[in-house]
Amino acid sequence: MEDDNAGGGDASPLHATSGAAQRDVIAASPTSSRSVTQTVNGSHRFVIQGFSLVKGMGVGNHIASETFTVGGYQWAIYFYPDGKNPEDSVYVSVFIALASEGTNVRALFGLTLLDQSDKGEHKVHSPFDRSLESGSYTLNSRGSMWGYKRFFRRTALERSDFLKDDCLKINCTVGVVVSTMDYAKPHSIHVPESDICYHFGALLDNQDGVDVIFDVEGEKFHAHKLVFAARSSFFRSKFFDHESDEEKNEVDTSNNEIKEVVIIDDMEPKVFKAVLNFMYRDNLVGHDELSASSSDCSIFDTSAGKLLAAADKYDLPRLRLICESYLCEHVSVNSVATILALADRHHATELKSVCLKFAAENLAAVIRTDGFDYLKDKWPSLRSEPVAGCEDEECSRGGKSQSVWGQLSDGDGGDTSGRRVRPRV
C-alpha cells in the first residue's frame, strides 16, 4: 500500500515546482585563474685564497662561504679540497647547501669555475639550460646539498688556468622556484586621478576664507596663510614663528574683516601671480609664463629667471625644478655662461650641472662668447667649481682640468657657430 501511495497524484505539484525553480536559475559569470611558476634568481662569488694551504685538510672536510640569501632562504657554498667521500679523494668536491630552515625547497643551481687567464673558458656546471627537461631539485631540510662530488681532478686543477696566484674563484647561481596564483577579479572600480589641485585652485578663485593680502607694487592679491605656510617654509616661519618676527606686517580692516598685509617689494605683479597660481595648483598655467619676456633681455630678467629667483627665496623646490627644466632646453653656446651664472646664484644644482657638462663638451666655442667674459667678471666664485662628470682617472692621466676656468681655457672643440646645441643630461 505504501508503494501505491508513493506513486499517487501528490507527485505532480513537486514536478511543477522543480520546473519553476529551473526557470529561475541565473547563470553565474565565468571565472578564471592562472598559476604562475618562476624562479627567483641570485648569485654569489666564492673566492678561495691560499688553495695550497687548504689542500690536505682531509676527506670530508670543507671550507664554507659566507651565507647569502636567495628567494627567502639562506645558502652557502661548501668546498671540499680533498673530496667529499673516500672514493672521490683525487677530486675536489663543490656543493651548494641550504643553510636555513626549510622543507621541500625547490631550486635550480649552477656552479662556474672561473678561468683566470682572460680566455673566458670557464668550467660551467649548470642545469638551468636543462630545467625544462629534468625539472628542479628539491631540498627537504637544512643542510641538504646539491653539487658535484667529482667537480675537478685536483692534479689537473693545479696545472690549469683556473688556479692563479694560489687562488680559485667559484660563481654560484641559485634559482628558487616559487608559484603564485593569478586570478581575474570579476569587478573593478576605477579611481580617477587626484583633483586636489582643482579644488585648491577654486579656493583661490572664489577667495573664500582669505586672511592675508599680498601687496605687490600696489596690486593686491588675496590668499590663505595656511596654504602658503604648507607650501613654503619661508612663509610658514613668517606667519607662525612669531618669536622670530622682527617686523610686524600691516593689517587691513576694510569690510570689517581683519587681514594681514604682506608687502612684496622684490617681484613684479605678473611674476607673483604665477607664484600664487603655483602655490594653489602645483603647476604653472603654461610655458607662456616662463617665456613671456623680451628676446633681447638678460636671462636674469626673463620670466623664467625671475620665477627661479622667487622659487629660491621662498623655498619652492618644485617650482625651481620646473624653471630649471625649462631653462635646460634653452642652453646653447651663447647662453650657457649666463644660465650657469643664474643657476649658481639661485642654487639650481640640476641646471648648474647641465651647464657645466655642456660647457665642457663645447669648450672652444664657449670661451669665444660674450657670456663667458661676463661669467669671469661677475662670478669669480666659479673659478674652482668642479665640472660634474669628469672622471678622476681621466684627470689623473693629464686630461682636462676639473675646474670651470681650466676646462674652458684649455679645451678645444665644440660648436663654434653659436647655434643651439641640445645638452646631454
TrEMBL record:
Residues 41-174 form the MATH domain. GO terms for biological process: cellular response to salt stress; protein ubiquitination. Pathway: Protein modification; protein ubiquitination. Coiled coil: none annotated. Residues 210-288 form the BTB domain. Residues 390-425 are annotated as: Disordered. SMART domains: BTB, MATH. Transmembrane segments: none annotated. InterPro entries: BACK_BPM_SPOP, BPM1-6, BPM_C, BTB/POZ_dom, MATH/TRAF_dom. Belongs to the Tdpoz family. This is Speckle-type POZ protein. It comes from Zizania palustris. The lineage of its organism: Eukaryota, Viridiplantae, Streptophyta, Embryophyta, Tracheophyta.
